[in-house]
Write a structure and sequence with these properties.
The protein has 450 residues and is an alpha+beta fold. The protein is built from 13 helices and 17 strands. The protein is 33% helix and 16% strand. InterPro entries: FAD/NAD-bd_sf (IPR036188), MnmG-rel (IPR002218), MnmG-rel_CS (IPR020595), MnmG_N (IPR040131), TrmFO (IPR004417).
Length: 450
Amino acid sequence: MTQELHIVGGGMAGSEAAWQAAQLGVNVVIHEMRPKVETFAHRTGNLAEMVCSNSFRSDDDEQNAVGLLHWEMRAADGLIMATADRHRLPAGGALAVDRDPFAEDVTAALKALPNVRVEYGEITELPRDGQWIIATGPLTSSALGQAIAAETGADALAFFDAIAPIVYAESIDMSKAWMQSRYDKGETEEERKAYLNCPMDRAQYEAFIDALLAADKTEFHDGETAGYFDGCLPIEVMAERGRETLRHGPMKPVGLTNPHQPDVKAHAVVQLRRDNALGTLYNIVGFQTKMKYGAQTEVLRMIPGLEEARFARLGGIHRNTFLNSPTLLDAQMRLKSRPNIRFAGQITGVEGYVESAAMGLLAGRMAAAEILGRPLPEVPQDSAMGALIHHITGGAEAKTFQPMNVNFGLFRPVDGLKGGRRGRKDRYKAYTDRAKAAWQDWLGAMASAA
């Protein structure tokens, strides 16, 4: 076997795809344009750099679809999850990581493999020969994006995604803020105090909403429109949808008690999550924004406890490129018009670090099996991986296709279980039990084929 697997993009999906294929014995070349060609959101040339949040979200593999995806990736010896576990930060029931050491570790692990090499430079055309995986994510370069659009005939491949600000911990007023995870969730004291909370009374909240609505926003270029993914709406867009929207979203005050005023229930609460192992940086949870920088500092300093806040990074907005995968990709994630090319990660229409890495895991294994001439069992639809890939390669409605997080709504029903809220706990446990069994069977079948 001499054929190489070329992977364009060294983010979550590309890194995981490279790892999986290399572990199966395939020679891999990762093409990464950074740092030669920079992007708006990235700061380094490291592989698997985290640009938006530092959270992989819930780690509950019995009651949460994201946590189940974590479990499946760990079971498949995934690089991204193993590295995340090594650099884990307190985050209640979530899996948050120290982002810089995480990316450095992923980069070192891949470069240490004898059958992996990294070539730095931009790929601007879709290759006609060889086996390729395009995993360029939401920040696909303009040249490659145009090449993809020309091949697929897609009229639009972009919507807009926003980045949350990061605050220096030492600039937060702890006489007003306090540490507590919602509902004191977590097994250790550190986990139960993983979030920093800033309370607002009604008057402060109303003034904050007024300021959000009046703030200067980033303008779009001619011909561009804002089509946001609902799971990552800028806070000012949420405020435009109704004055109470934020109070029932990222600023909900439930499950928290202010030790400074234990008898006073906050009208709204802004939460910040630790962003590095040292605890010197905190990101404002759910506060993606397209406000201009000057407006951001003024508005965000209206939050009690953040009056003197200093920002390590202000929020921003960037283009997010994705395919209409249900019409363009086959069940093996290959481009129907050019089956030597697979796509993986956010560009396929999944949303989130975990989902992106998961699709990279599958693409890497699929490409390796094809190169090695081995039979590949169909990914079981009842697994979290299978539910997600089935959705993007045919299960979704093509006319209304939008990026999707993994969720139990993508899973086939389990016969004999109640619907509705009351039956949810038993239903979710049944989903995860069934998924784990199906995934283990699939991994076993792959090992037998080898």
